[in-house]
């Protein structure tokens, strides 16, 4: 993995709200932005900020559906990051 990718993902995962978003999207498989807002019970601008961090890191993939956007997890990116971290334990 590129060091910049590792940095972006590490920063994205450093916030508990972002971890909650990832957990929820993983459970649902695909989650609309409005559902994320309702789930976190945060203001829309705060949720947008968290989602931007996760999409910029490559962990979330946006899918535009008309006027709505839903998100899925990029499993390949997440698994590469996990493999990178596991390499320290070997």
From TrEMBL:
**Which Pfam family, just one, is annotated for this protein?**
HTH_20
Q: Which InterPro entries match?
A: ArsR-like_HTH, HTH_ArsR_DNA-bd_dom, HTH_MetalResp_TranReg, WH-like_DNA-bd_sf, WH_DNA-bd_sf
Gene Ontology terms, MF aspect = DNA binding; DNA-binding transcription factor activity
- The signal peptide, as residue positions, is none
Q: Keywords, A to Z?
A: DNA-binding, Transcription, Transcription regulation
Q: Which SMART domains match?
A: HTH_ARSR (SM00418)
Domain HTH arsR-type: start-end pairs: 1-90
Q: Which NCBIfam families match?
A: HTH_metalloreg
Protein name as catalogued: Transcriptional regulator
Origin species, per record, is Flavobacterium album
């Amino acid at each position: 993995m590129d060091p910049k990718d590792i940095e972006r993902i590490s920063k994205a995962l450093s916030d508990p709200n972002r971890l909650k978003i990832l957990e929820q999207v993983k459970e649902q498989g695909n989650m609309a932005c409005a559902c994320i807002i309702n789930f976190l019970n945060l203001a829309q601008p705060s949720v947008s900020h968290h989602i931007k961090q996760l999409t910029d890191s490559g962990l979330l993939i946006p899918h535009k559906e008309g006027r709505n956007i839903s998100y899925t997890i990029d499993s390949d990116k997440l698994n590469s990051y996990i493999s990178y971290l596991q390499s320290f334990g070997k």
